[in-house]
Amino acid sequence: MSDVPITWMRTQELAAYLGLHRNTLGNMLRAGLLREGIHRRKINPLSPRGEFLWNQEAVLMTLGRL
Predict the structure, then answer these.
(1) pLDDT score of 65
(2) Which of 60, 12, 19 shows the shortest CA–CA distance to 38?
(3) Which domains, and CATH codes, for the chain?
(4) What is the DSSP letter of 3?
(5) How far apart are CA 35 and CA 59, in angstroms?
(6) Quick one: which of 61, 53, 62, 66 has its CA closest to 15?
(7) Which of 14, 28, 54, 57 has CA atoms 20 to 30 A from the CA of 5?
(8) Neighbours of 29 (CB within 10 A)
C-alpha cells in the first residue's frame, strides 16, 4: 500500500482541472476507459441520483497525464 493520500474531487472540479466537460467524464466511464470504484465513487451510495467523487491520480494515470 502507498502512503500517498488520494485526492478526491467532485465531477465539476475534476472536469475543470482537466479542461473537459463533465459529460466527457461520464462518456469515458460508459466507454469503459474509467471504472466505477477505481476512478469514481458515489458520495452517498444510498442516494439514487447522488454526487460523485473522482480519484484524481487514478484518472490522470489512465489518461496518461501523470
Answers:
(1) 80
(2) 60
(3) 8-63 (1.10.1660.60)
(4) -
(5) 9
(6) 53
(7) 28
(8) 16
Most distant CA pair in the chain: distance in Å? 33
Cα 64 versus chain centre, distance = 14
Sheet holding 52-55, edge to edge: 8-10, 52-55, 40-42
- Output 32-40 pairs: Cβ under 8 A, ≥24 positions apart: 33/62, 34/59, 34/62
In terms of residues, how long is the chain? 66
| Structure confidence at residue 2 as a pLDDT band (50, 70, 90) | low
Q: What is the reported pTM?
A: 0.86
